[in-house]
Amino acid sequence: MVKIDKIELPDFPLLLAPMEDVSDPPFRRLCKENGADLMYTEFISSEGLIRDAAKSLKKLDIFEYERPIGIQIFGNELDSMEKAAEIVTASRPDILDINYGCPVHKVACKGAGAGILQDIPKMVRLTEAIVKSTHLPVTVKTRLGWSESTKYIVEVAERLQDVGIKAISIHGRTRQQMYKGEADWTLIGEVKNNPRMNIPVFGNGDIDSPEKAVAMKNRYGVDGVMIGRATIGYPWFFREVKHFIQTGEHCSPPTLEERIEVARRHLQLSVEWKGERTGVVETRRHYANYFKGLADFKEFRTQLVTTDSSEGVYAILDAIGDQFLTVV
Question: Is 251 an annotated catalytic residue?
């Protein structure tokens, strides 16, 4: 068993990474049904929260079936982060998570997300203030460092633990790497195996197969893995990893019928939660993976990502079934 404060998770839990416009309630529901043990919301701007920005407030939506669930915030101003923490606490998640890992320019170059890795003392001060401002367990997601020459994650993890965080998730790249090259798990392993660390350490980066998840578990001893891009359009990834860990064998992949049905349900949930236009548009990023491997699929894929109505997408999904499913 892995414990984040008083929250009990199974041995070697699988975490859904917070991904902008991906880790929303519709997608989280599908991931939960397929074995995700702990999920986080999309990251939420602290400034947006305290200014009642509609998009930020909408991201606070969480549901009982998702628990345990963490709400993730980002920012670089102490006062705003403390106020945002109070708003998050009132939303009653199980965990408050701080994003110190987002590498995108509009976030990092304002000193938030991975940008704060350029000012470790401020990172520690912010974290300590947030820990003191909420009764929720506080966790952190971050990267190895800002650049190749500033990979201070072993020391940083210690300092964050010392001011009260209850778990840390580490992406095995620097901010300068963005998502290029291979994730380096060596320092993640050093954090986990540091005798001073006594909180769960989760690894993140390039977990794109069940074999890789097991390899990282065995090689570096991490308490669990956080999975991001491999789940987009493929919520079954969680059940496949769990099956492989338990049996050493691969489970059967989802059938085409299951892929079509889950794609339909994903769109339906998205439209119900976001409205017709946004629901249709933001589900598009998932279709390539929902139907990955189908031959002669290009025309259908183009239609799926250009059709503007949910009814139109449902009709395309029906046509995919008509063309590719063999009638017995």
Answer: no
